[in-house]
Specification:
312 residues, alpha/beta, Rossmann fold, 7 helices, 7 strands, globular, disordered N terminus, binds nicotinamide-adenine-dinucleotide, binds magnesium ion, SDR family oxidoreductase, Sc_DH/Rdtase_CS
């Protein structure tokens, strides 16, 4: 049985923080001031300070993905972990891809999924490798007994102060993981996805407002929006919907593993209209909506979850 009765958490103001309770979004989570910190890429949630909310306790499932089978890349930490936890609490079995170094984070997410009464399939491996982009899909299909949700969420973001300082290796790796890997994994998944399936790609608000120190990363995120809108048209007649989610500043290990300059971390997310960084679990309802049949007429859309940062 799916656990849909998890208790809601309380925040510092004594307010309930599960996603279905009426509450003030300004104070749902505190405006964090993370201490300056650094982890080597890809970074771990278990070492992040302050900790994040990935919905372990706070996400409340309502059975919207009962019996579904999902593959999520970058699912050990941050947004991908929050999506994996929410999908499981909504009734889906979930295959999690991540890098082998991230095993400690993956084990945490696996335990939450199993506590929710769902299956968690762990598929560590590097999506920079072309062959693995097919292997990850085949393993997920075999272990889950099929596939009807694909979340392309893995990504790398590494600051470079100038174009001259952007190494060719970083340029190629950023594009290979963030957009070429997305093409490859999606292509491998297509033969398995029945009508009714959903593909959801993680893009970013930087697709519209590229920070000058993230030229390579922001370019891939703009490409993801474009890929999403084109593929959505191509797959619509097959009954497969393709959409994207564009997060604003969300507190995750990506930020402390050279995703931001270290000295910028204490103010992370404070310039949004809500005045605070987002927590990973605040992204989950957007992915659940796009995965579930209730969004049957939503195709080629990018849902912006950005704390009010203006988007086109
Ligand atoms: P995260 O570090 O928790 O997740 C990124 C994941 O990418 C890692 O956990 C890792 O498993 C995976 N990854 C990295 N290199 C890989 C490789 N070579 N092979 C396989 N997997 C690899 O950080 P996050 O912020 O949750 O990032 C998730 C997605 O959200 C990314 O696509 C990121 O660009 C996007 N995003 C994040 C923010 C934010 O503010 N955190 C904002 C906009 C978009
Ligand atoms: Mg991770």
């Amino acid at each position: 049985m799916t656990d849909t009765s998890n208790e809601a958490q309380q925040n510092a103001n004594g307010e309930t923080t599960d996603q279905l309770t009426f509450q003030n979004p300004v104070t749902r989570y505190p405006a964090i001031e993370p201490p300056e910190q650094h982890q080597s890429e890809p970074g771990l949630d278990v070492e992040l300070e302050p900790k994040t909310d990935r919905g372990e306790e706070s996400y409340r499932g309502t059975g919207r993905l009962e019996g579904r089978k999902a593959l999520i890349t970058g699912a050990d930490s941050g947004i991908g972990a929050a999506v994996a936890i929410a999908f499981a609490k909504e009734g889906a079995d979930v295959a999690l891809n991540y890098l082998p170094d991230e095993e400690p984070d993956a084990q945490v997410v696996k335990a939450v999924i199993e506590k929710a009464g769902r299956k968690a399939v762990l598929i560590p491996g590097d999506l920079l490798e072309k062959a693995f982009c097919e292997t990850v899909v085949e393993n997920a299909v075999n272990e889950l007994g099929g596939l009807d949700i694909l979340v392309n969420n893995a990504g790398r973001q590494i600051v470079a102060e100038s174009l001259e300082e952007l190494s060719d290796e970083q340029l190629v790796d950023t594009f290979t993981l963030n957009i070429i890997g997305m093409f490859r994994v999606t292509k491998a998944a297509l033969k398995h996805l029945p009508a009714g399936s959903s593909i959801i790609n993680t893009t970013s608000v930087v697709a519209y407002e590229p920070p000058p120190i993230l030229l390579d990363y922001a370019s891939t995120k703009a490409a993801i929006n474009n890929f999403t809108k084109g593929l959505a048209q191509q797959l619509a007649p097959k009954g497969i919907r393709v959409n994207a989610v564009a997060p604003g500043p969300i507190w995750t290990p990506l930020q402390v593993s050279d995703g931001q300059p270290t000295e910028a971390l204490p103010e992370f997310g404070q310039s949004t209209p809500l005045g605070r960084a987002g927590q990973p679990t605040e992204l989950a309802p957007a992915y659940v909506f796009l995965a579930s049949p209730e969004s049957s007429y939503v195709l080629g859309e990018t849902l912006n979850v950005s704390g009010g940062m203006p988007t086109p």
